[in-house]
């Protein structure tokens, strides 16, 4: 029997922040870009909407069930002929209950500040009236209404920014559009450049010309663009029609961008100036009632506060039903977050990333104005004894309060920070309570990065790690204990029928006073032999791990040596590449020993 193996990749990355990166405009200065991006960074929270003719189907067509998890990919998954899809799917798309005002009001009441709407997905069907192609909602469906126009108008009414998603690379209807692997219908045959110059340029010109201000363009499938030079050239032409537009990084592999996207991966750290997580509530982007893997509202709320704490945006996806209404699960999640936002929104809008590396009880955000500083503590683990220690703050505190509460609480300075006391025994909110700390002097904060011990060893554990996770696989590592020692549990393969790594990562930020080499020991447990460790930092080392004969039988193994540079270093622990096997491992610690 062939032995299973799994891969852990250990990468040492010294993060360099590129503040001079060009955005959507070649000659734009850093200050000009910051001004254009201001509404986006202030907003922090938006709604993604995936909706189209594919929403009519529930992963099944003419008795054949879709193998993929994504409802919007059914035409490709089942290789539905173009004419049949047009007749049976597009022809039956009649969302009589659609009301743009209702949709935008949901976003507004949830505290969202912008909406990004699918205008054309990979099936090539447009949700707006078009002279470029008659394959659109007005010309081909009994509904005959311009959904994009109505949503654009509703966003203006409620004061939300309006953005559009457009699938430029893939198009399974128009001749010449890209299809993964190979085309399955003769109508798809054609020249890609001609498709891009006519359909893509024509469609987006209409979107940028006929719907007022478009605040953001969300391209997709950059790696599938067949002529990146042409795409970049047309992209530069199009943005001139919307001079203040914000552009995502997916026009082509080499296109200019304004922000980094994280799709279905909740990042633990960010390395660029502007960042956005887009995340589904279940697995499918579009409506698929058979997909019942709904994320809990509390998890989604914590995802919002987490993204705010690291200085990013959260674009929460909703897949409306074919009749034009929102699924009940989405409504409940929006209402849950909206109720929280009504009380705590000042901790979200116009904030910056946490001034702390990591807090044991939750996360934080910072807001600074006119010499006044507000630190918002997102408390996930409410202290049962009514006392909360916040290490690293060296300032005198002007005031401290609980958002939404009138309780009088106390604060005192300690040798290592501050102590907040007289807190109520019961958490003000079941998932995320917020404590506001106000400081009226220049901030003096020790971020709390991992530092060497007196013996020059560095201990990296789950308790001082930051996590990047892929929650759609229901395989999120969490901290468990064995003999009072913490370890990462549930770090395993969770993708059905495969043994592939799910992409979870642990990060540590380490601060050292001077450059040096360190020996690295991994303490772990596994029941599988042959696991491969990859150690990367200019050099690349591959090490096979022996079987420890059990998931609680922790043993140490030397991985090799790494070099840390003076200042802040980022160490990342992850599984292997997509095509490398993965099975369960329990990670207890990494010990770095100065040589």
Automatic annotation (TrEMBL):
Gene3D superfamilies: Galactose-binding domain-like, Glycosidases, Golgi alpha-mannosidase II. It comes from the Bacteria. InterPro entries: FUC_metazoa-typ, Galactose-bd-like_sf, GH, Glyco_hydro_29, Glyco_hydro_29_N, Glyco_hydro_b. It holds the Pfam family Alpha_L_fucos. Transmembrane segments: none annotated. GO terms for molecular function: alpha-L-fucosidase activity. GO terms for biological process: fucose metabolic process; glycoside catabolic process. Residues 21-346 form the Glycoside hydrolase family 29 N-terminal domain. SMART domains: Alpha_L_fucos. Its EC number is 3.2.1.51. Keywords: Glycosidase, Hydrolase, Signal. One of its GO terms (cellular component) is lysosome. The keyword Isomerase does not apply. Belongs to the glycosyl hydrolase 29 family. Alpha-L-fucosidase is responsible for hydrolyzing the alpha-1,6-linked fucose joined to the reducing-end N-acetylglucosamine of the carbohydrate moieties of glycoproteins. PANTHER family: ALPHA-L-FUCOSIDASE, ALPHA-L-FUCOSIDASE-RELATED. This is alpha-L-fucosidase.
């Amino acid at each position: 029997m062939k032995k299973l193996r799994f891969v852990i990749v250990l990468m040492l990355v010294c993060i360099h922040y590129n503040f001079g990166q060009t955005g959507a405009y070649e000659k734009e200065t850093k200050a000009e870009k910051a001004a254009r991006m201001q509404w986006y960074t202030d907003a922090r929270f938006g709604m993604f909407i995936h909706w189209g003719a594919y929403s009519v189907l529930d992963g099944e067509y003419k008795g054949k069930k879709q193998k993929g998890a994504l409802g919007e990919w059914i035409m490709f998954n089942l290789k539905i002929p173009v004419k049949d899809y047009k007749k049976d799917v597009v022809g039956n798309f009649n969302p009589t209950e659609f009301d743009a005002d209702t949709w935008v009001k949901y976003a507004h009441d949830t505290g969202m500040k912008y909406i990004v709407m699918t205008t054309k997905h990979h099936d090539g069907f447009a949700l707006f009236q078009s002279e470029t192609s008659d394959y659109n909602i007005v010309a081909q469906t009994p509904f005959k209404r311009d959904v994009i126009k109505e949503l654009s108008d509703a966003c203006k009414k409620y004061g939300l920014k309006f953005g559009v998603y457009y699938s430029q690379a893939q198009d399974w209807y128009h001749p010449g559009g890209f299809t993964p692997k190979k085309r399955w219908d003769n109508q798809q045959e054609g020249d890609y450049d001609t498709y891009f110059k006519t359909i893509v340029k024509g469609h987006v010109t209409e979107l940028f010309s006929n719907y007022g201000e478009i605040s953001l363009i969300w391209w997709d499938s950059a790696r599938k663009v067949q002529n990146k030079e042409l795409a970049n050239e047309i992209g530069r032409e199009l943005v001139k029609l919307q001079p203040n537009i914000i552009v995502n990084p997916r026009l082509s592999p080499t296109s200019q961008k304004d922000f980094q996207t994280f799709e279905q991966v909740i990042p633990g750290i960010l390395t660029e100036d502007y960042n956005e997580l887009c995340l589904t509530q279940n697995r499918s982007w579009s409506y698929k009632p058979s997909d019942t893997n709904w994320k809990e509202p509390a998890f989604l709320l914590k995802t919002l506060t987490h993204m705010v704490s690291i200085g990013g945006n959260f674009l929460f996806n909703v897949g409306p039903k074919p009749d034009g209404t929102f699924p009940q699960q989405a409504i409940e999640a929006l209402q849950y977050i909206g109720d929280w936002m009504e009380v705590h929104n000042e901790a979200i809008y116009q904030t910056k990333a946490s001034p702390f590396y990591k807090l044991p009880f939750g996360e934080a955000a910072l807001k600074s104005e006119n010499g006044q500083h507000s630190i918002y503590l997102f408390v996930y683990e409410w202290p049962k004894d009514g006392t909360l220690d916040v290490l690293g703050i060296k300032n005198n505190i002007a005031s401290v309060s609980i958002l939404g509460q009138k309780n009088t609480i106390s604060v005192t300075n300690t040798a290592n920070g501050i102590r907040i006391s007289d807190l109520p025994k019961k958490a003000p909110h079941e998932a995320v309570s917020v404590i506001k700390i106000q400081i009226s002097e220049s901030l003096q904060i020790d971020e709390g990065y991992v530092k060497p011990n007196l013996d020059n060893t560095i201990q990296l554990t789950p308790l001082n790690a930051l996590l990047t996770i892929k929650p759609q696989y229901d395989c999120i590592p969490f901290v468990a204990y064995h003999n009072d020692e913490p370890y990462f549990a549930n770090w395993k393969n969770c993708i059905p029928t495969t043994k592939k790594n799910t992409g979870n990562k642990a990060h540590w930020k380490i601060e050292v006073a001077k450059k040096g080499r360190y020996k690295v020991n991994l303490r772990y447990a596994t029941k599988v032999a042959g696991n491969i460790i990859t150690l990367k930092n200019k050099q690349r080392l591959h090490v096979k791990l022996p079987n420890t004969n059990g998931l609680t039988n922790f043993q140490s193994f030397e991985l090799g040596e790494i070099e840390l540079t003076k200042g802040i270093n980022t160490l990342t622990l992850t599984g292997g590449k997509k095509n490398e096997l993965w099975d369960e491992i329990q990670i207890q610690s990494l010990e770095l020993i100065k040589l």
